[in-house]
Amino acid sequence: MAEIVDIISEISFEDIPEKAKQAARLCLLDAVGCMVGGMKCPAVLNLAQTISQKNPGTTNIAATSLSSTRPWASFVNSHACSFFDLDDGHRRAQGHPGGVIVPLSLMMAAENGCSGKELLTAIVIGYEIGVRGALIMRHAGGPRKGSGGWSITGGVAAVAKLLKLPPRQINNALGLAEYFAPQAPQDRSLAYPSSMKEGMAWASYSAISIVELAAAGFDSMTPYLADANQGSDAVFTYEICSVYFKMHACCRFSHPVIDGLANLVQNHDFLIEDIDSVMVASFEKAMLLSHMAPENPVAAMYSIPYIIGCYLVRGKVGPQEMVDDSLTDPKILEIAKRVVLQEDPSITDQFPEKCLARVAITLKNGTILATEALSARGDPDKPYTLEEMRVKFMDLTTSLPRNSHESLYSHIMNIDTASPRKLWNKLHLTI
């Protein structure tokens, strides 16, 4: 039996360092905000309503009065959490752990009457195992897999911990997760954006069924996590402390570009009408985000030219900038046409450990306003303040009734001594 499985089974809240506990609270806060904010998108709500009608059940769909079967509710909750691309990420994993791990953990902790400490412990485990799964995949090479291809292992580990499965069943659950993980071809999904969102919703759906199979005695292959160098070390590195958070509703590849634009806008006096062109130098994978006129919200989130237009025209890149009226804004689209993307091999060499971009605006009078290569805020070495995280949460949850987002914030930040079930019930709206 792999030692890592024993650690998953035995680790307790008291074993976890305070830094990792605080990171777990912030990941919980961020994911709940993203779930509520994502459900405000009409397409996501319509999907939730359809799934609820076709698959009746008793498991809550967050930020609605709807419910469905446990797997389908998990699907919708993760889809809402990840829809606007505001959910957290991990540089070396090259994707998003929280959009799968946190909704699953909160839902299962609530259903099983777990304590807040047990919830935070499961979240810490989920991030640790999910990131290790990603590193195994990256080391193996081949086509890159999106977040659903590895966050499923984190989701399964977290749920197995909450259900108190014994090591043998945890081992089987992890093996099943690796085998049944969605293929999630990452680069192709960037080139052709769609509602799939890296297979994260399907990873959540599958994770529930996998844990139920393992609990029923269904066995599996020995998981790579048991013996691969990136997975089998029984000493936790607390990868949850290395996540980044996002303030802009778009792919992380665009965030250093936005920060560069903010720098230029703050330090130079120019008008949109003065701009002749905008040049972005970044790493090779960022060149996939070249759509000039995205036709849907997801394509907009994966378009650096469109994001540049949003920021320069509207001064922000939030969920509202990803909806239909923004997609046809002639001012935004005109700026997008003037954007040129170029790969910088020196920046490519630093990816994925660093996500860098350099921005240069050429004005019609020939003046060039340029930045050095920048990383985005929100990384562990350039973190957002707790107040900034609170403001993001409040902005995303204003749709909740009776200003309940204030009490929701307090509940989450004090979840160590609070009830996950009460938190989950606060997210299920009455008609």
Which features does this protein show?
two-stranded antiparallel sheet; 2 domains; 60s Ribosomal Protein L30, Chain: A; globular; 431 residues; 19 helices
What does this structure look like?
The chain has 431 residues and is of the alpha+beta class. It folds into two domains: 3-247 and 385-426, 2-methylcitrate dehydratase PrpD (Orthogonal Bundle), CATH 1.10.4100; 252-375, 2-Layer Sandwich (60s Ribosomal Protein L30, Chain: A), CATH 3.30.1330. The chain has 19 helices and nine strands. The strands form three sheets. Strands 5, 6, 7, 8 and 9 form a five-stranded mixed beta sheet that branches. Strands 1-2 form a two-stranded antiparallel ribbon.
CATH architecture of the largest domain: Orthogonal Bundle
Shape: globular
How much strand?
Answer: 5-15%
Overall mean confidence score, pLDDT: 95
Q: What is the count of distinct domains?
A: 2
Tell me how many strands there are: 9
* Main beta sheet strand tally, sense and closure: 5 strands, mixed
Give unreliable regions as ranges: none
Helix amount: 40-55%
Q: CATH homologous superfamily of the largest domain?
A: 2-methylcitrate dehydratase PrpD
- Per CATH, what is the topology of the largest domain? 2-methylcitrate dehydratase PrpD
Compact description:
The chain has 431 residues and is an alpha+beta fold. It has 19 helices and nine strands.
Topology, pairings included?
Elements: H1 3-10, H2 18-38, H3 42-54, E1 59-60, E2 67-68, H4 70-83, E3 89-90, H5 98-111, H6 116-140, H7 148-162, H8 167-180, H9 186-191, H10 200-215, E4 243-244, H11 255-267, E5 275-282, H12 297-301, H13 304-314, H14 324-327, H15 330-337, E6 339-343, H16 345-348, E7 356-363, E8 368-370, E9 374-375, H17 386-396, H18 405-413, H19 420-426
Parallel strand pairs: 5-6
Antiparallel strand pairs: 1-2, 3-4, 5-7, 7-8, 7-9
